[in-house]
Specification:
It contains 22 helices and five strands. The chain is mostly helical and 501 residues long. The protein folds into two domains: 291 residues, no CATH class; 118 residues. A five-stranded mixed β-sheet has the order 2-1-3-5-4, with helices on one face. α1 runs parallel beside α6 and α5 runs parallel beside α7. It starts with a helix and ends with a strand.
């Protein structure tokens, strides 16, 4: 009982920083990538939804059990989709914070270093990762969030000397997000090698087991993602070219700096910790450095040959997400140990700066939406108001069309109509484009539908009738006031929801 009482303050601090991190990063279900994942979860719970366009999320999720698991959780608990997603999101954050604290307390003896590291990670959840278009954590439930939390916990178990406990954690991460789990497995291999007793043995083991370190990548490519090797087509290449961050050799100099500078910093930390006889910290830094060098080489090979272009959507540079996690964690720990110490004023300034700056960045990014889009809240965003009306007032088999780049519209804040309105739609030119890069067979369908919606702002009743005849579209979301000839059922000051007669 005494042990538990002594750990109660630590438990409450972990929860506190998880809540603070959640509050700073914000919560935006249905935004950006969640246009795919939230729609998939809703389809798993209610299979009658999306009768016309389910392939635009179903095919991409063939490699993961994420949507099925969340769907089963919802059926088992009786929770709403919105509440279940919120619970899983916060659970992932809490697990990641706990894992980071576990790692920090094994690498540094000072409690102030532990909590400074945890505070830094929690504040930096939405830190962009070099040129990868990733954050440390997404502002909505993403299988990458779940997988990342499990990978961090697996690393903590290996660091604690319990390597076999990492195996089930990495296995669950793999079925949640195979590609992220692949790089997580790679890091855990390097960490296990770095923790071996002899430096010479570590180096020789690394050189002789390079294939083992990349086994996660190979497994992710060839086991559940075999459909990724369908022959590419010109439309697929067209979609791929819209994602410039896929192309490593087109990155700007500062993006390359963001990729390589952290590796140099971990090399420097390794050497410094060795000189100070901080054995465990030195080995952890060596593991991050070796992992980074290996994965960087893999990425440069995969993205450097035209014959391997089909591998481009695997985004091998996403290995940097873990590097940035550890960079924030150890950077915060070192700040707590050498700069903050026991000064209340330094701690207050530190927490204010890191949390205030990231909060301001998120408010700027989602400037027309509530910072925390929690279940049951009434949105003041006119786009979300329209999506909500559609969800509650149109038939489940309604088939919508709208401006194909609607997610970029002023005030829309990149929310997905499909995920939030729960209705089928013609393919868009933003999020569905990313899906096509993963699933080439959707390319011709996507291209035909997007091309049919070109010139949307000048559409007349004849154009809407053409869409209805060609694709079966019977509803549209248009700007207010609506074009003549439509049977409009609802509007606000920005949008109209209309049926095509």
């Amino acid at each position: 009982m005494g042990y538990r009482r002594n750990n109660l303050p630590n438990f409450f601090l972990v929860v506190f920083f998880a809540v603070l991190g959640f509050a700073v990063m914000g919560y935006h279900p249905g935004a950006e990538d969640d246009g795919v994942y939230l729609a998939a979860v809703k389809h798993a719970v209610h299979p009658s939804l999306y009768p016309r366009d389910a392939d635009f999320f179903r095919l991409q999720l063939q490699a993961t059990v994420f949507d099925a698991w969340v769907g089963h959780f919802i059926h088992a608990t009786g929770l709403s989709v919105a509440m279940a997603e919120l619970l899983w999101q916060f659970g992932s954050i809490l697990l990641a914070v706990y894992a980071c604290w576990s790692i920090a307390r094994m690498l540094f003896p000072e409690p102030r270093a532990h909590w400074a590291g945890v505070a830094m990670v929690a504040a930096m959840f939405t830190l962009p990762v070099a040129g990868t278009a990733l954050y440390l954590f997404d502002q909505h439930l993403h299988p990458r969030n779940v997988a990342t939390a499990l990978i961090l916990l697996a690393a903590a178990r290996i660091l604690a000397g319990h390597r076999w406990q990492a195996v089930p954690l990495l296995a669950i991460a793999f079925v949640m997000h195979p590609i992220m789990a692949a790089v997580g497995i790679s890091f855990c291999v390097f960490l296990a090698l770095a923790l071996s007793d002899s430096v010479n043995d570590r180096i020789s083991a690394w050189l002789s087991h390079r294939k083992a370190a990349g086994a996660g990548v190979a497994a992710a490519v060839f086991l559940p993602l075999g459909w990724m090797f369908e022959p590419p087509n010109p439309v697929w290449k067209k979609a791929l070219d819209t994602r410039t961050y896929y192309y490593l050799y087109k990155w700007q100099w500062y993006e390359w700096l963001g990729a390589l500078a952290p590796l140099f910093l971990f090399w420097l930390l390794w050497r410094m910790a060795e000189k100070r006889s901080q054995k465990l910290l030195a080995r952890f830094a060596l593991a991050v450095f070796a992992y980074g060098v290996f994965q960087q080489a893999v990425a440069m090979l995969m993205l450097g040959f035209p014959a391997l272009i089909r591998l481009t959507p695997l985004q091998p540079m996403r290995y940097l997400q873990l590097v940035y996690f550890f960079l924030c964690l150890l950077g915060g720990c070192l700040a707590g140990k050498f700069l903050l110490k026991a000064s209340i004023w330094r701690w207050a300034l530190f927490l204010t700066v890191i949390n205030g700056s990231m909060f301001a960045a998120q408010r700027d990014q989602f400037s027309h939406s509530a910072h925390l889009e929690l279940p049951g809240m009434v949105s003041g965003n006119p786009w979300l108001q329209a999506f909500d009306w559609v969800r509650t007032n149109t038939p489940e088999d309604a088939y919508f069309a709208m401006e194909p780049r609607y997610m970029e519209a002023h005030g829309e804040d990149f929310h997905s109509f499909r995920a939030l309105a729960e209705r089928s739609q013609l393919a868009d030119a933003i999020k569905d484009t990313a899906v096509v890069t993963q699933v080439p067979r959707l390319g011709p369908i996507w291209d035909e539908q997007v091309r049919a919606q070109e010139g949307w702002k000048n559409f007349t009743s004849a154009d809407f009738e053409r869409l209805k005849t060609r694709f079966g579209v019977n509803w549209v979301l248009v700007a207010f006031p609506a074009p003549e000839g439509l049977d409009c059922r609802w509007h606000n000051g920005t949008l109209s929801v209309c049926e095509i007669p």
